[in-house]
């Protein structure tokens, strides 16, 4: 049954994406930039509905009160699945990404990116180019936007040893804004590089913001400690609440380690 539901969901997901782009593209490009973001947010909400009705996977968000109001900040979530690449957009007022410039060259998709004033960067760039990227990011932040960045850089399987990149510490130092850590385990329900989707219920936990002004090295150490401690606790909660889940090896090993330590 899981295989059938997974196939149906994947088909519905991509059909929904194509239909939304065909139907909503004229609306998107006619609306003012910020209002046009509603198109992407509604697409995310429709995917949540499909995930619930076809797969039987639901989620809830804890800690919405921790989101800073009336200021720019760095949104720093765990990244395990394609789910978390779009899922939290409806709860962000006006987010943006620093992304590789090649994405802006993709027809239609690249135009969507450019309209939302994303910050493109040549990953091999140095010196003045990177300084210009940082100035762009600062300008967007001053208008109260939220920079979304994954501290580990890429998707990691649930329970995998952390691999945080120093880039978030540099952004924290240069942008001088709070960082909002977020932990979650959607990779247990929507595994990376697999087509299977699993039913169940999971939580997204928004942690208290880390204020600006710390030494960047101290900040990174604190961020890792806070996020990994919260992530471990949430992993155990998620596994206990969904005993039917087939755990990937990384998650099974981490759960066993935490049980042994009495966490």
TrEMBL record:
<feature type="transmembrane region" description="Helical">
    <location>
        <begin position="12"/>
        <end position="31"/>
    </location>
</feature>
<keyword id="KW-0808">Transferase</keyword>
<dbReference type="InterPro" id="IPR002123">
    <property type="entry name" value="Plipid/glycerol_acylTrfase"/>
</dbReference>
<dbReference type="Pfam" id="PF01553">
    <property type="entry name" value="Acyltransferase"/>
</dbReference>
<keyword id="KW-1133">Transmembrane helix</keyword>
<keyword id="KW-0472">Membrane</keyword>
<dbReference type="GO" id="GO:0003841">
    <property type="term" value="F:1-acylglycerol-3-phosphate O-acyltransferase activity"/>
</dbReference>
<protein>
    <submittedName>
        <fullName>1-acyl-sn-glycerol-3-phosphate acyltransferase</fullName>
        <ecNumber>2.3.1.51</ecNumber>
    </submittedName>
</protein>
<feature type="domain" description="Phospholipid/glycerol acyltransferase">
    <location>
        <begin position="73"/>
        <end position="187"/>
    </location>
</feature>
<comment type="pathway">
    <text>Lipid metabolism.</text>
</comment>
<keyword id="KW-0012">Acyltransferase</keyword>
<dbReference type="GO" id="GO:0006654">
    <property type="term" value="P:phosphatidic acid biosynthetic process"/>
</dbReference>
<keyword id="KW-0812">Transmembrane</keyword>
């Amino acid at each position: 049954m899981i295989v059938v539901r997974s196939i149906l969901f994947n088909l519905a997901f991509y059909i929904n994406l194509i239909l939304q782009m065909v139907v909503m593209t004229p609306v998107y490009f006619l609306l003012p930039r910020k209002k046009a973001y509603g198109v992407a947010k509604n697409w995310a909400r429709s995917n949540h509905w499909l995930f619930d009705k076809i797969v039987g996977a639901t989620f809830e968000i804890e800690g919405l009160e921790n989101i800073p109001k009336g200021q720019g900040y760095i949104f720093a979530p765990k990244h395990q699945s394609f789910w978390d690449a779009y899922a939290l957009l409806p709860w962000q007022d006006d987010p943006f990404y620093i992304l590789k410039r090649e994405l802006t060259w993709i027809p239609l998709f690249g135009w969507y990116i450019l309209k939302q004033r994303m910050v493109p960067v040549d990953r091999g760039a140095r010196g003045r180019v990177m300084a210009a990227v940082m100035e762009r990011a600062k300008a967007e932040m001053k208008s109260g936007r939220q920079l979304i960045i994954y501290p580990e850089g890429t998707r990691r399987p649930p329970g995998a040893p952390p691999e945080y990149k120093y880039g978030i510490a540099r952004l924290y130092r240069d942008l001088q804004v709070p960082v909002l850590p977020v932990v979650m385990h959607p990779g247990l329900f929507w595994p990376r590089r697999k087509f299977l989707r699993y039913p169940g219920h999971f939580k997204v936990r928004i942690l208290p913001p880390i204020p600006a002004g710390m030494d960047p090295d101290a900040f990174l150490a604190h961020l890792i400690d806070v996020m990994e401690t919260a992530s471990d606790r949430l992993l155990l909660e998620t596994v206990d609440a969904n005993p039917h889940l087939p755990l990937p090896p990384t998650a099974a090993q981490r759960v066993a380690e935490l049980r042994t330590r009495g966490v």
